[in-house]
Amino acid sequence: MNDINQAAASGARILLRKCLGLNEDDIFLLIFDETTQEFPEIFRQAAAACGITCEQQFVSRKLQAEGKALSIELSESLDRSRGVLLATTDDEKCSQFRIALTSGERSNNALATMPGGSVDILATALDVDYDNIIQMCRGLTVPLIKAQECRITTIDSHSQPHVLTFALGGMERVPIQSLGIIPLQAWGNVPAGETFVAPLEESANGEYLINGAIGTEKVTGPQEALIVFERGRVVRQFYLHSNEPIEHFAQLTATALRNGHSECWNIIAEFGVGVNKKIDRIHGVQLIDEKKYGTVHVAIGHNKGYGGNTKCSSVHCDMTTVSPTVELDGRKFIEEGEHVYDLSEWLDDYRSFVPPPGKEWTMNDTYVNLYYDSYRLEDNGTLLAKHITQSGRQTLYAIGDDATSKLSYRLVSSFGGDQAQTVSNLRAALSIDSDDLCRLLSLLHVNRIIRR
Fold first, then answer.
1. Counting beta carbons within 10 angstroms of the beta carbon of residue 90, is it exposed (0 to 12), middle (13 to 18) or buried (19 or more)?
2. I need a labelling partner for 64 at 20 to 30 A (CA). Which of 234, 336, 370, 447 fits?
3. What is the pTM of this model?
C-alpha cells in the first residue's frame, strides 16, 4: 500500500470513529457512485479494522440526475444504519439527491456528506485538530450573530477592489458550525471546517470577486470572475479578463430551468468562513474548497435547510474566494484571509449589557422559565448557549465574557432541575443587586435561554 492509500485508510477510520462516532458492531452505510469507485474497498477495510459492519449502495449519476435514486432498498439500508457516508458526485445536475437525503425526515443515524470526495481528500483533510476547529467555529459564531451588516472586499489581479454587502439576521439566522463531528439524527459535511450563515435574502448588493472556485469550476489565476448582486439576486456574472459569461452559470441556469426553479436559483443563500488548514489548495470541489482556511464563500440557491427561506432543491452553488477582507458592522473580521477579530470585543459583559427594545427584563417579571435544551453547562463552570439548527446540528457559543458565562452557569444551576424559578429566588441564589440580575436575565433572554 502506497503512502496516499495508507493516509486515505487512516482518514476513513477517522471518519468512522471520530466524525460518525461509530462503535464496534454498529452498521455503516456507504453510498457511492462512478466518481468514488475506490471508496468501497477503502471503507470495507477500515470498517473491518474497527469491528464495524459495512454495507454499500451504488447509486449511479444517471439515477441521481433523474430523481430516481432514493429506492426502497436504499431507504431500508438507511433505516438500519447507525452511520452513513454519502460520497457521490458534486455535479449540480445530481444535487437534488443529496438535498433530498439531507432535507427529508431524518432516520436515527448520523449522515456525513462528501460530494466530490476523492482518495486525496480522504488522505489529507480529515486528520485535523478537531478541538481547534471546534474552538475556531464557535468563535466565529458570536460576531456573525451579533453583527447586522457584512462587507466583503476582494482585490482583483489588477489591484482593483470589489465590494459586496449584505445583512445578517441575528438570532433569527443562527450560524451553523460544520465541525465534522455529526451526532445522531443530524447531517453534516466532511471534511470539517466552516461556520456559515444564511444572509437576509434581499439584502445583497455589490460586486463579489471570485479567485477560487464557482461550484466545480476553478477560477484561479487569470480566470477571476465577478458576480454582481442587486437586492439579493445575481444580475450579472462574467470573467474579468474577457467579459464573457461564466461557464458554470450556464449549467446552473439549465438545471434550474429544467426543475422549475428559475425564480429562486440566483438568490444569495449563504455566507461562510473556512477554518481547515489541512486543505492546502483549491480543488474545484465546492464542499471542500469552502472549508479551506483563508477563504470565504458566498452561495446562491437553496438554503431552506440552512436557516433561510429559499426552497430551490436543484441548486446550491458555493463560490469561494481566497484572501478576502471582511468587515462586520465596520469592524475588521478577516484581513486578506487572516482572522484578525478579537473575540473578547464581541462578548457581552452582563454588567454593561443594553438589551434591545422589548427584551428588557425587570423585577416585575415574577417568573423565569428555562427553554428546554437551550444551553450546555461545561465542566469548568461556564455556560454555552445551544441552538438546534434545521439540519439537526448543534450550534454552541459563548454568550458573554468569562464572568458572565460563570454567573450564567450559577443562575441556570440554581433552577435545580425545575423549568421555572422566581426572580426573587434567583437574586438570593446569586447574591447580586436587582439591576445586575435584570441585565443578566435580559442577556439570557436575547440568547433564547430563558423566557417569561
1. buried
2. 234
3. 0.88
